[in-house]
Design goal:
8-stranded mixed β-sheet; alpha+beta; Beta-Lactamase; about 525 residues; about 30% strand; Tumour Suppressor Smad4; 9 helices; 31 strands; Phosphatase 2c, domain 1
Length: about 525
């Protein structure tokens, strides 16, 4: 399945930023030259923040940056990960970045910016809201009503409708729109416009928007006896226009075609207050929506982790002729790893470690079915290939579309001095010989297809010699694919190096887990991290 496109675009900042992840699973943000998304400003830390994708979900972590990272106006705790959803605003001062995930689903329409010719008969005024005359009388009443009613709004559309209706009534201008304009952009996205039929005909003034970017209300007015504003606005017939900041990269824009008096400071303050009211309400709605989605995601993952916790064996112990140790640490979105060890008849011991595709409750049920059925199939057949074939057919006929399991399955036979194994698309297995300080040997055996894809799939057993003291070390892709602050992965090579000199099953698990933790310091663990070491005694 192709991951949804992930685009990061600045809505505020000293220079325009547009970045497409294009299949990446990690995007490092910072001032350092090798950061994936480099923001060259003294306020940005060298390694500031990290975006990571696990399954189809993106997450952001602050990497103990000097000035912090904010998501939808809320500061992130250093090292903690928060889910990122379509439309979220990520702030790395002095930039505010909008995250778009997947295809553009909004109904926003874009209109081109117009250059206003410099003319002596056109007046540009900028009002500082801190010293402008506050709204009184009718305008104050309208503003109070809007403030009261906006609390009952349950959607962005409700908020936008209220703001535009109120500003048109109070200003007596003819058109009003909420627009989003990235820095240095040549066009603007129209979030809402009243009258709606005017959306495609808005003659947005580049001069006016530039004047309003400093956080003040800007107006343009033409003398009543001269042509409408600006050379390029002439055809549009605009005589008066107002622009007020309304959030990060968002503006409240009004204009009128008929001749009228210049906008006074009270009306300008009224427009500015409505812009601020919109920014606050939009931020609150965005934050509340993100928290609801995050809470739903966390509830699903908690349920999945509980299923997982109940099925795995104790962290260490003896199982027939083998000692074993294991660790399973759930990731921020994943609950799909499986691990088990089973004492079989004839003094043999079976074991497996695998990973279910997908994240959340659905895949966790596939994990539970795979874990239980593999346990029973190994007890019944005492043969990895027969167990894999039976479980593959079971999953392919019953699991949800697209869900499958990569798995490494082994049976140790002490009397034969061998480990018989099947690799169903997993690949992460090592053989650590006793009494040696050398790197372990990758257990490269023929790779079969993952379980659950083709019900007619068949698997063949391969054997490797094993002696007392030797250990089979298995781990999930959460080990080798864990990233550091630069977005680099842990890799096979680091896994091999971490196990040099390790003397026991428990030491294997502790050494590999510690190496991953040290490598990824400051970055949340995205995927499940599961390690198992089985030692023949």
């Amino acid at each position: 399945m192709t991951a949804p496109e992930f685009v990061i675009e600045s809505v505020e900042g000293p220079e325009r930023v547009t970045y497409r992840a294009s299949g990446r699973t990690a995007v490092g943000i910072g001032r350092q030259a090798d950061c994936t998304l480099r923001l060259d400003h003294s306020a940005v830390s060298r390694n500031h923040a990290l975006l990571t994708r696990h399954a189809e979900q993106w997450f952001v972590s602050d990497l103990n940056s000097r000035h912090g990272t904010m998501l939808n106006g809320r500061r992130l705790d250093p090292g903690a990960s928060r889910p990122v959803f379509d439309g979220d605003l990520l702030t790395v001062r002095p930039w505010t970045l909008r995250c778009t995930i997947g295809s553009q689903t909004s109904l926003e329409r874009r209109v081109a910016m117009r250059d206003d010719g410099a003319r002596a008969d056109v007046t540009v005024a900028v009002f500082d809201r801190s010293i402008a005359r506050a709204p009184t009388g009718r305008l104050l009443h309208l503003l109070s009503q809007a403030t009261e009613h906006i609390g009952a709004a349950v959607s962005e559309a409700d908020v936008r409708e209220l703001i535009l209706a109120t500003v048109l009534e109070g200003s007596a201008l003819e058109r009003a729109a909420l627009i989003r304009v990235p820095p240095e952009a040549d066009s603007a996205a129209v979030l809402a416009c009243r009258p709606e039929r005017e959306t495609d005909r808005l003659p947005l003034s580049r001069t006016l928007l530039h004047a309003a970017r400093g956080g003040r209300v800007a107006t343009l007015s033409a003398a009543s006896t001269v042509a409408p504003l600006g050379e390029s606005l002439l055809d549009a017939g605009v005589h008066t226009a107002v622009c007020a900041p309304a959030g990060e990269g968002v503006f409240l824009y009004l204009d009128a075609q008929s001749a009228r008096k210049p906008v006074d400071d009270e009306t300008a303050a009224f427009c500015g207050s409505l812009g601020s009211l919109y920014a606050l309400a939009d931020s609150n709605l965005r934050r509340a929506g993100a928290e609801r989605r995050s809470a739903r995601l966390n509830a699903q993952l908690d349920a999945a982790r509980e299923v997982q916790r109940r099925l795995v064996p104790r962290d260490a112990g003896r199982c027939g002729p083998a000692l074993y140790a294991s660790v399973m640490v759930p990731g921020i979105v994943v609950a799909g790893d499986l691990f088990d060890i089973i004492e079989l008849d004839d003094g043999q011991v079976g074991f497996f470690l695998g990973d279910v595709t997908g994240k959340g409750v659905g895949p966790s049920l596939t994990m539970a079915a795979a874990q239980a059925s593999l346990h029973l199939a190994l007890r019944e057949h005492r043969d990895p290939a027969q167990a894999a074939t039976a479980v593959n057919r079971f999953l392919a006929e019953r699991s949800e579309t697209g869900a499958f399991v990569t798995c490494w399955i082994g049976v140790i036979d002490p009397r034969a001095g061998e480990v018989r194994c099947v690799d169903a698309g997993h690949g992460y297995a090592l053989l650590k010989r006793a009494n040696t300080d050398q790197e372990p040997e990758p257990l490269r055996i023929g790779r079969g297809i993952p379980l659950g894809i083709d019900p007619e799939g068949e698997y063949e057993v391969e054997s490797r010699p094993i002696a007392p003291g030797d250990r089979v070390v298995l781990f999930s892709d959460g080990v080798v694919e864990q990233t550091n602050t630069l977005g680099e992965q842990f890799t096979w090579a680091r896994a091999l190096a971490a196990l040099v000199g390790s003397p026991s099953a428990e030491a294997d698990v502790h050494a590999l887990q510690a190496a991953v933790r040290t490598f990824s310091a400051g970055v949340a663990q995205g995927d499940d991290l599961t390690i198992g070491s089985i030692q023949l005694t």
